[in-house]
């Protein structure tokens, strides 16, 4: 194992986030707080409770997920796309590091950042409303699992993308709509039956539902199904990453 | 002495069917400076990229210090430093952060004293805290060398080190390579400037259309360069070289209007005096004379056009 090499990538990526702290740390917190104020205060004044949970508190897990998914995808995709763009990727490819070490370095750094952001937003939310956490360890497990899985997904996009537009298109046109339609701001029960069925094809539904269960023990789908689907998506991403390195797709000719 | 780099039957065909390398065989000795000369698109960068792990070979085998580049990639890559042809476009990190990252990426423990020496040797120490975007083109190129040296490689690849670099910087680059030679690093550089190969290399290889067409010691090549031709335009054409002049290395032009004498410029006696005398005695008169010398460039062009 080249642990130093792996750590070099990890450290370099985290240093980049810290160097651009306004964009990478402050901006997601401000955005989430705005969502919280607008949705929580405006809608919350009319919708008192969802499934016995005050509306302001109900949307907190969804908001954390929204931020976690977009930040994981954006960070990880940018992390690997940028060296491809600047040309410095040659150094990583010619270094004595294994594919696994490269993935752990890049994906680990993006996931770490998302995780920290998720926790910061959770504490920020506590300033606005009371957010009890029924199963803190399960909540943390969901945070870690989601950060890692979607950072893997972002890593894949960062390798697939050939320009900045492609890099942006997946987070903007796929991740954000799926998250908004994934029960972030509502319970699936409020939808007509047809749209409830359609929603079950949205993977984000399972993440938000399971994550929310760890807070309030209310969910749209059973907890085990949530966990199972999250693992399934992670395995799918891992398989894709394995294939990328095996074939050298977009990295080696 | 076993070679530090050995390439056997190496082939590379890109997915679009373009054959970039054909059956390359090459051995590089420890401590030498080897110049790989070739026109654009000859396969120089592909060859280097395969050895460094950036491009996959289609067939053949490469070993570095006895280790296979695929099976023992950690061993081979930790011995190799690569200075790419293109300047990278990163901008916001500092010089010191970049070289530290390079060293760590290759698994070497922190050694600030060594990195300081590398930066000082490459005249970058004063710029250690500068962001990359503040550096000039020449500094950026030296930084790429510093990054490649950060993990103390024993083999260094310089891919077109002076491409797009002004005369003064090119001179500086030659001095850098000389410094590398003295520190015991084996250097393999690619170039399409003949004078660069002449200036720096111990041995010269010529690659064209994916094939190595010549590998030769530079001194021997220079000896070939040391040969000159004296061309004598005759007053009256000859049909054959007269028997009286058979002792001289003489040739006759196709139309018989000129005699061509080949001689070594570096030998103590060129034989020109004797030849002139013999010509006079044989009654051969000439109207004009001039000398020509084949340059490395001529040899190179012959090889490249001939293949």
TrEMBL record, chain A:
<dbReference type="Pfam" id="PF01061">
    <property type="entry name" value="ABC2_membrane"/>
</dbReference>
<dbReference type="InterPro" id="IPR013525">
    <property type="entry name" value="ABC2_TM"/>
</dbReference>
<feature type="transmembrane region" description="Helical">
    <location>
        <begin position="167"/>
        <end position="186"/>
    </location>
</feature>
<feature type="transmembrane region" description="Helical">
    <location>
        <begin position="20"/>
        <end position="43"/>
    </location>
</feature>
<dbReference type="InterPro" id="IPR047817">
    <property type="entry name" value="ABC2_TM_bact-type"/>
</dbReference>
<dbReference type="GO" id="GO:0043190">
    <property type="term" value="C:ATP-binding cassette (ABC) transporter complex"/>
</dbReference>
<keyword id="KW-1133">Transmembrane helix</keyword>
<keyword id="KW-1003">Cell membrane</keyword>
<dbReference type="InterPro" id="IPR052522">
    <property type="entry name" value="ABC-2_transport_permease"/>
</dbReference>
<feature type="transmembrane region" description="Helical">
    <location>
        <begin position="55"/>
        <end position="82"/>
    </location>
</feature>
<feature type="transmembrane region" description="Helical">
    <location>
        <begin position="137"/>
        <end position="161"/>
    </location>
</feature>
<keyword id="KW-0812">Transmembrane</keyword>
<feature type="transmembrane region" description="Helical">
    <location>
        <begin position="221"/>
        <end position="245"/>
    </location>
</feature>
<dbReference type="GO" id="GO:0140359">
    <property type="term" value="F:ABC-type transporter activity"/>
</dbReference>
<keyword id="KW-0813">Transport</keyword>
<dbReference type="InterPro" id="IPR000412">
    <property type="entry name" value="ABC_2_transport"/>
</dbReference>
<comment type="similarity">
    <text>Belongs to the ABC-2 integral membrane protein family.</text>
</comment>
<protein>
    <recommendedName>
        <fullName>Transport permease protein</fullName>
    </recommendedName>
</protein>
<feature type="domain" description="ABC transmembrane type-2">
    <location>
        <begin position="19"/>
        <end position="248"/>
    </location>
</feature>
<feature type="transmembrane region" description="Helical">
    <location>
        <begin position="198"/>
        <end position="215"/>
    </location>
</feature>
<keyword id="KW-0472">Membrane</keyword>
<feature type="transmembrane region" description="Helical">
    <location>
        <begin position="102"/>
        <end position="125"/>
    </location>
</feature>
TrEMBL record, chain B:
<dbReference type="InterPro" id="IPR003593">
    <property type="entry name" value="AAA+_ATPase"/>
</dbReference>
<keyword id="KW-0813">Transport</keyword>
<dbReference type="InterPro" id="IPR017871">
    <property type="entry name" value="ABC_transporter-like_CS"/>
</dbReference>
<dbReference type="GO" id="GO:0016887">
    <property type="term" value="F:ATP hydrolysis activity"/>
</dbReference>
<keyword id="KW-0067">ATP-binding</keyword>
<dbReference type="InterPro" id="IPR003439">
    <property type="entry name" value="ABC_transporter-like_ATP-bd"/>
</dbReference>
<keyword id="KW-0547">Nucleotide-binding</keyword>
<protein>
    <submittedName>
        <fullName>Multidrug ABC transporter ATP-binding protein</fullName>
    </submittedName>
</protein>
<dbReference type="GO" id="GO:0005524">
    <property type="term" value="F:ATP binding"/>
</dbReference>
<feature type="domain" description="ABC transporter">
    <location>
        <begin position="5"/>
        <end position="234"/>
    </location>
</feature>
<dbReference type="InterPro" id="IPR027417">
    <property type="entry name" value="P-loop_NTPase"/>
</dbReference>
<dbReference type="Pfam" id="PF00005">
    <property type="entry name" value="ABC_tran"/>
</dbReference>
<dbReference type="InterPro" id="IPR050763">
    <property type="entry name" value="ABC_transporter_ATP-binding"/>
</dbReference>
């Amino acid at each position: 194992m080249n642990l130093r090499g792996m750590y070099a990538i990890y450290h370099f990526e985290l240093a980049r986030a810290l160097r651009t702290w306004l964009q990478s740390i402050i901006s997601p917190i401000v955005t989430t707080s705005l969502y919280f104020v607008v949705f929580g205060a405006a809608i919350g004044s009319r919708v008192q409770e969802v499934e016995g949970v005050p509306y302001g508190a109900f949307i907190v897990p969804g908001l954390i997920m929204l931020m976690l998914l977009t930040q994981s995808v954006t960070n990880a995709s940018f992390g690997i796309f940028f060296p491809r763009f600047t040309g410095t990727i040659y150094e990583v490819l010619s270094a004595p590091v294994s594919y696994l070490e490269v993935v752990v370095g890049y994906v680990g750094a993006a996931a770490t950042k998302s995780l920290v952001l998720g926790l910061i937003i959770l504490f920020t939310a506590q300033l606005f409303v009371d957010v009890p956490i029924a199963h803190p360890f399960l909540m943390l497990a969901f945070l870690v699992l989601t950060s890692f899985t979607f950072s893997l997904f972002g890593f894949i996009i960062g390798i697939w993308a050939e320009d900045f537009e492609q890099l942006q298109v997946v987070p903007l046109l796929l991740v954000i709509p799926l998250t908004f339609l994934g029960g972030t701001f509502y319970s699936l029960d409020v939808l007509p039956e047809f749209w409830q069925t359609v929603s079950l094809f949205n993977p984000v539904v399972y993440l938000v539902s399971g994550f929310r269960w760890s807070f309030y023990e209310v969910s749209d789908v059973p907890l085990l199904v949530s966990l199972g689907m999250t693992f399934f998506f992670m395995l799918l991403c891992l398989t894709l990453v394995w294939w990328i390195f095996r074939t050298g797709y977009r990295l080696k000719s | 002495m076993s070679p530090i780099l050995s390439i056997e039957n190496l082939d590379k065909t890109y997915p679009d069917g373009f054959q970039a390398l054909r059956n390359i065989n090459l051995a590089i000795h420890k401590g030498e400076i080897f110049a790989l000369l070739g026109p654009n698109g000859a396969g120089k960068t592909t060859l280097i990229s395969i050895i460094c792990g950036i491009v996959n070979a289609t067939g053949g085998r490469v070993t570095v210090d006895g280790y296979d580049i695929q099976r023992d990639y950690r061993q081979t890559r930790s011995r190799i430093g690569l200075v790419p042809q293109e300047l990278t476009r990163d901008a916001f990190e500092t010089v010191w952060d970049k070289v530290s990252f390079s060293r760590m990426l290759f698994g070497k423990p922190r050694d600030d004293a060594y990195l300081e020496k590398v930066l000082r040797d490459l005249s970058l120490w004063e710029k250690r805290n500068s962001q990359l975007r503040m550096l000039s083109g020449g500094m950026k190129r030296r930084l790429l060398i510093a990054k490649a040296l950060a993990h103390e490689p024993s083999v260094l690849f310089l891919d077109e080190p002076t491409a797009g670099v002004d005369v003064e910087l090119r001179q500086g680059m030659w001095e850098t390579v000389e410094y590398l030679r003295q520190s015991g690093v084996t250097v393999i550089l690619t170039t399409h400037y003949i004078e660069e190969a002449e200036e720096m290399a111990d041995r010269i290889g010529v690659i064209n259309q994916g094939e190595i067409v010549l590998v030769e010691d530079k001194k021997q090549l220079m000896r070939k360069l040391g040969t000159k031709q004296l061309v004598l335009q005759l007053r009256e054409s000859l049909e054959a070289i007269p028997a009286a002049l058979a002792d001289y290395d003489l040739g006759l032009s196709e139309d018989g209007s000129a005699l061509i004498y080949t001689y070594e410029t570096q030998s103590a006696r060129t034989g020109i005096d004797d030849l002139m005398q013999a010509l006079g005695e044989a009654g051969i008169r000439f109207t004009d004379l001039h000398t020509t010398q084949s340059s490395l460039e001529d040899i190179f062009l012959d090889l490249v056009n001939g293949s």
